[in-house]
Amino acid sequence: MLERITNQKQIILNYLEKNKSHPSAEEVFLNVKKILPRISLATVYRNLEQFAQTGKILEINGATKRFDGDISDHQHFICNSCGTVYDIFCKFPSAKNFKNHNHKIGKIENYQILFYGTCKKCKK
Amino acid sequence: MLERITNQKQIILNYLEKNKSHPSAEEVFLNVKKILPRISLATVYRNLEQFAQTGKILEINGATKRFDGDISDHQHFICNSCGTVYDIFCKFPSAKNFKNHNHKIGKIENYQILFYGTCKKCKK
DNA sequence: TATCTAATTAGGAATAATTACTAATAATAA
DNA sequence: TTATTATTAGTAATTATTCCTAATTAGATA
Questions:
Q1: Rounded (10°) CA dihedral A109, A90, B60, A70
Q2: If both were cysteines, with which of A35, A66, B20, B27 could B60 make a disulfide (CB 3.0 to 4.6 Å apart)?
Q3: What was the pLDDT predicted at A98?
C-alpha cells in the first residue's frame, strides 16, 4: 500500500521535530489540535505508530509492564513480532559505568537496555 | 510503615523467581490464582510495584508510550519522581556493537538504554 | 495466649491508555 | 476529471492500571 502525505501527518511530524519534551500520544493530540481542531485521537495514534515503524520518530517506553524475578545483571531482548521477552546475559563493559553516575540531569540510580529485533522462532 | 509478610506476597514472589517468562501483571494474576483462587488483581499489581521498588524484582518496559522526533543517536533518562524524560547525548562506546549483532536469540535491529534516577529539579 | 492496631486484602468501580470500527473524505494515479 | 483506495473523524470497545472501602490478618504488645 502506498503511503499518502496528509496535512495531519505533516503537522504531527512537524510538532515532534520541533518539540523536545518527549510527549505522550495524548500530549501530541492536544497540541496538534491547536492547529487542526478536528483531528481525531485515533489519527494521532495511527500516525505515531506508522512514524515509529518507518523510523521517522523514536518510541520510548510503552507496552505492557513485564516483571522478572531474576535481579542478576542482565538485559532483555524484545521480539517485535511476538512480543516475547528474552534474557540477554552478555556483559557490556561500559554499562557498569552507568550506575551511580552523576549526570548533569541527575544521578543515575538504575538503567536497563532494551534490545529489539525479530526472534529466531518468528524468523522461520 | 512496617512491611508484612503475607501468603499472597510469598506466592507471587515465588512464582516470579521460578518463572523465566517475564510475565505481565495479568499473567502473574492468572497463575497465582491457581494456588490462591481468591486473590485479587489489585493485590497482584500492588505487590508487584512494591517488589520492584524494593529491588526484589525487575520491571521491564511499562508506563505510557512517549515519542521523540529526534532520531539521532542518543538515550533517555527518566525521572522516577516526576516522570520527565530527558535526552542523554553521552556516547557509550560498546553500544555501537549492539546494533545488527546476531545474537542466538535473534538479530538485534535496534536498542534503547533507559536510565532511571531522580532529576535535579525533583532532588531540591 | 489474647488483644490491639495498622498493613494488607478482596472485590469491584473508576480511570487511563490504546485499538477497532465505519462511513465520509481526500491524495494520487490514470 | 475520474476512479481508486489510503486515510480520516468520531466514537465505541477493549485493555491496562489504579483507586476505594469494608473486612481480614500479621505481628507487636500486654
A1: -90
A2: A66
A3: 80
Look at A58 and B64 and tell me if their CB atoms are within 8 Å: no
Which chain A residue has the Cα nearest residue B19? Answer: A69
pLDDT of A93: 67
B43 plus B79 within the same structural domain:
no
Q: pLDDT band at residue A30, thresholds of 50, 70 and 90?
A: very high
pLDDT of residue B93: 67
What CATH number has the domain bearing residue A88? 3.30.1490
Cβ atoms of A79 and A118 closer than 8 Å = yes
- The structural domain count of chain A equals 2
pLDDT confidence bin for B78, thresholds 50/70/90: very high
**Rounded-to-integer distance, Cα B101 and Cα B96, Å:** 9
Name residue B69's amino acid.
G
CB contact under 8 A, A67 and B111: no
In a domain, A15, yes or no: yes
Q: Are A76 and A115 in contact (CB under 8 A)?
A: yes
Instruction: State residue B6 phi and psi, 5-degree precision.
Output: -120, 160
Give the phi and the psi of residue B35 in degrees, each rounded to 5: -95, -40
Mean predicted confidence (pLDDT) in A56-82: 95
CATH code at B33?
A: 1.10.10.10
Please check whether residue A31 touches B, CB under 8 A.
no
pLDDT band at A122 (very low <50, low <70, confident <90, very high): very high
